[in-house]
TrEMBL record:
<protein>
    <submittedName>
        <fullName>Uncharacterized protein LOC117137804 isoform X1</fullName>
    </submittedName>
</protein>
<dbReference type="InterPro" id="IPR029055">
    <property type="entry name" value="Ntn_hydrolases_N"/>
</dbReference>
<feature type="compositionally biased region" description="Low complexity">
    <location>
        <begin position="48"/>
        <end position="57"/>
    </location>
</feature>
<dbReference type="GO" id="GO:0051603">
    <property type="term" value="P:proteolysis involved in protein catabolic process"/>
</dbReference>
<feature type="region of interest" description="Disordered">
    <location>
        <begin position="41"/>
        <end position="62"/>
    </location>
</feature>
<dbReference type="Pfam" id="PF00227">
    <property type="entry name" value="Proteasome"/>
</dbReference>
<dbReference type="GO" id="GO:0005839">
    <property type="term" value="C:proteasome core complex"/>
</dbReference>
<dbReference type="InterPro" id="IPR001353">
    <property type="entry name" value="Proteasome_sua/b"/>
</dbReference>
Length: 273
């Protein structure tokens, strides 16, 4: 039985995903010639790859009786393509900025999602593909540290986990924001590293957005002004937003813990002279 063409594949997905607008719009960015090229590489008994010289990291092999007209098979191929999609191809933008009493993440696109990593730590990243996989892996690791070991995870520790996962990525569209005992933090992910920033933008219109942020941001910007600036920079009045408010008690607890560690309980104030 011959394998379906790219058009057949796209039509099948259109029917299968008709009730899922976000997935359907994700599929629409893949043209049928590209689907044809991808399917053409998936010969029975071979591992599919995104290019002839660069094999897929997946070790799955298709059996000789590979049924290209199976719904399960086609859905598997579709999501494999989604995993191989770079976040650079995603439409839309994300913004992060700090204010005097909060840190904000915002996006103008349904292609991005606000992920809860820990109690006061979030990241904004693509909702599909390898980026989603990485976010879920980091989130699982954080949950393990908090639940099983009783550790308090800092924003910098979460940042380090992402840096480890993105060592070979060119420039992932990921922003991390949160608060710990050291204060409010905003990190922009780069290739295997990160930058601590006061504002940042990622996406298809980064240059223009950063221009607006750099012009309007100030050291004394409050939360209301920051939210307005995020919408202005994204040119989206109804941008999805995530706000982490400054909780002073968290920073005060951190300061008290550091003070206690500096005091030697075996030495009294009187005997120290």
């Amino acid at each position: 039985m011959p394998r379906p063409s790219g058009l057949d594949f796209a039509n099948w997905l259109d029917l299968f995903l008709g009730s899922a607008p976000s997935r359907r719009s994700r599929c629409s960015c893949l043209d049928t010639p590209r689907i044809d090229a991808f399917l053409g590489q998936c010969q029975p008994g071979e591992t599919p790859s995104s290019s002839s010289s660069s094999p897929s990291p997946s070790e799955d092999r298709y059996p000789a009786s590979f049924n290209w007209h199976s719904a399960r098979t086609l859905l598997g191929v579709y999501f494999k393509m989604m995993e191989d999609e770079s976040s650079m191809s995603i439409e839309g933008n994300i913004v992060g900025l700090k204010s005097t009493n909060a840190v904000i993440l915002a996006t103008d696109s349904k292609e991005y999602e606000m992920y809860l990593i820990d109690d006061r730590i979030y990241c904004c990243a693509p909702r599909s593909g390898i980026d989603r996989k990485i976010v879920l892996e980091v989130s699982s690791k954080v949950e393990q540290l908090v639940r099983d070991r009783g550790q308090k995870v800092t924003v910098s520790q979460v940042r380090d986990m992402f840096c480890d996962k993105y060592q070979n990525a060119e420039s992932p569209n990921v922003l991390i924001a949160g608060q710990d005992s050291k204060g409010l933090h905003l990190f922009s992910m780069e290739s295997g590293k990160s930058r601590m920033v006061i504002y940042a933008a990622k996406g298809t219109d980064t240059e223009n957005i950063v221009g607006i942020l750099s012009h309007d941001w100030s050291d004394f910007i409050n939360l209301s002004e920051a939210e307005h600036l995020a919408r202005k920079a994204l040119r989206c009045e109804h941008a999805e937003m995530c706000t982490i408010y400054r909780a002073k008690e968290i920073e005060e607890q951190g300061a008290n813990m550091e003070f206690d560690m500096d005091v030697d309980p075996s030495v009294s104030p009187a005997s120290s002279f």
